[in-house]
Specification:
There is one protein chain. Helix 1 packs across helix 2. The protein is an alpha+beta fold. The model has no long low-confidence stretch (mean pLDDT about 85). It is rod-shaped, with a radius of gyration of 22 Å. The protein has a domain of about 80 residues: Arc Repressor Mutant, subunit A (Orthogonal Bundle), CATH 1.10.10. A three-stranded antiparallel beta sheet has the order 1-3-2. Strand 2 and strand 3 form a beta hairpin. The chain is about 40% helix and about 20% strand.
Length: about 120
């Protein structure tokens, strides 16, 4: 499937996700691909397919359509693959922020400024 870390970083950047959410989403994608470069759309659960459509909208996934004959009828098959993350121009992923980091920064911002001032020793 490719590099899960790159996908995680792209998810954080494009969807403004928390690190944990991006990790979980990337894991869902990785699990769906089962180590392969492509996954057949017919093999996807409807919730995963919905996620894939959202990722396709942001150019993180691509879909390939192929036609074949079965019992004299022309049928279509769709295969998903992960886009080359490097081609999206997202090299500057920014720092990873966890929920704990975000909560800690909220606490520090709520403290009054005078608590941060150094006072001379008495």
């Amino acid at each position: 499937m490719g590099d899960v870390n790159k996908l995680e970083h792209a998810l954080r950047r494009i969807f403004n996700m928390m690190r944990e959410d991006a990790e979980a989403t990337a894991k869902v994608v990785e699990t769906a691909f089962k180590g392969e470069d492509e996954v057949n759309d017919e093999d996807l659960d409807k919730d995963v397919r919905s996620l894939f459509y959202a990722l396709e909208k942001e150019s993180l996934l691509q879909v390939r359509r192929t036609e074949y004959k079965f019992d004299g009828q022309v049928r279509r098959a769709y295969f998903w693959r992960v886009s080359r993350i490097e081609s999206l121009g997202l090299q500057d992923f920014g720092p990873a922020v966890s929920k704990e980091d975000l909560e800690a920064s909220k606490v520090y911002r709520q403290l009054p400024q005078e608590l941060w001032a150094r006072k001379p020793a008495a």
